[in-house]
Amino acid sequence: MKTLLLAACAATLSLGTALAGGEGWTDDFEAAKKQAAAENKDLLIDFTGSDWCGWCIKLNKEVFSHDVFKEGVEDKYVLVELDFPKDKSKLTEETLKQNAKLKEVYQPKGFPTILLADPQGKPYAKTGYQPGGPEKYVAHLNELQESKVARDEAFDAASKAEGVEKAKALVAALGSMKLADATLASSYSDTIEEIKAADPDDETGFVKKIELKEKFAQFETELNKYGQNGDRDAALKLVNETLAEDEFGDPEKQQITFIKAMILAEKKQFDEALTTLDAAKAIAPDSKLGARVDSFKEHISKSQAESKAPKTEEKKDGE
């Protein structure tokens, strides 16, 4: 009876620990970093939605579940799965908190997002689903390793330079990885501080660029909060205040102006919305967003006409 109880407990403890990637993966990030450092490997981090993300499921089925993949990466990477399932019972409370924190750090823009990172957890390359099966995926990862080589060579060059030249070398190191600015800001904050110290007048323009990206991300976060609450007035106030500060470049300014037009349309202030769309297009007529403005104007004009059309009364039974 004692043996049966122990077996039942072991089975219970194992529930929810099976990872979508299968054998060879871990969801313990800190343990993975220690293992990577001890074994002189890098981290392969998979941001996935195991029970809802079609491309994630496809990547697991076509690539990660195959021995060819596991054998191809076993000497180079510790495999880390950061899952964001709809069914939260699949993960422990500790893992849910860990994954949420890491999502804030690495800022994945979609799922699946695959990051390659050094043993300290600093990413140097990003990818996602790739067709072609496990052999082709392993070859793709091998190509991405060149980003780490380029990063480290640039860091080495920076260590031998001073002043603005050092800042330029560090900026080149960060740029070589082709990572999102938000990821760089959170993962390479020490490097950004070095750039600031080496280039206090910001001759490279890099610091201002990063700060504006962070500010725009804060704007989006606050705007989304108002959107979730359905508070259009607060959202419009935020947009107007942000435009009045006039700190962003044309791409961001056009996007914010476009958002303002959409809020005005939702508030049924159609004439003002149409005028604001014209202003958005004028900022950068040839951009992707600028090219879409006319189609949005058509939709808003149609909504405006429908709002002015007289409503027909429903006929009563027998009429």
TrEMBL record:
Pfam family, any one: Thioredoxin_7
Domain of life: Bacteria
Keyword Signal: yes
InterPro entries linked: AGR/TXD, Thioredoxin-like_sf, Thioredoxin_domain, TPR-like_helical_dom_sf
Extent of the signal sequence: 1-20
Residue runs in coiled coils: none
Annotated region described as Disordered, given as residue ranges: 294-319
Keywords recorded for this protein, A-Z: Signal
Residue span, Thioredoxin domain: 4-146
Record field: compositional bias (Basic and acidic residues): 308-319
Keyword flag Signal: yes
PANTHER family: ANTERIOR GRADIENT PROTEIN-RELATED, THIOREDOXIN DOMAIN-CONTAINING PROTEIN
Protein name: Thioredoxin family protein
Organism annotation: Haloferula chungangensis
Organismal lineage: Bacteria, Pseudomonadati, Verrucomicrobiota, Verrucomicrobiia, Verrucomicrobiales
